[in-house]
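Researcher: Please predict.
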Amino acid sequence: MHYFAYGSNLHHFQMKRRCKDSVYIKKINLKDFKLTFRSKYGAADIEPKKNSMVPGGLFEISKSDEKKLDVYEDFPNLYKKYYFYYYGKKVMTYIMVRKSIFKFPTERYLNIIKRGYKDCKLNQKTLMKALKS
């Protein structure tokens, strides 16, 4: 199964530790969405926004990896699954159930995401813009 990471799961070492079968494929952009941070944790989330895009990493994951991600993402309480198609392939990602107001992420969490942006060779411009929400 294909999985789209846009937050801390972009961090290759963390993703591998969390999902042992995961394989990073490449960086992709999710169109008509924007990145934000919310919930009491200041966790990454995406929301629909025309003419905007969220850079992220496309991973191949196993069924057992998906179960581990479900636990980590507190599915279905904090996050629900969202599916989209990328060049005809079905891709799964997570979006927050409750759209609370913007909350700045912790420095530790943000550093993991920044490391993930480097791992996937993503432009940090989108990340910096999301932090100014």
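Model: Residues 2-130 form a domain with the Hypothetical upf0131 protein ytfp fold (CATH 3.10.490.10).
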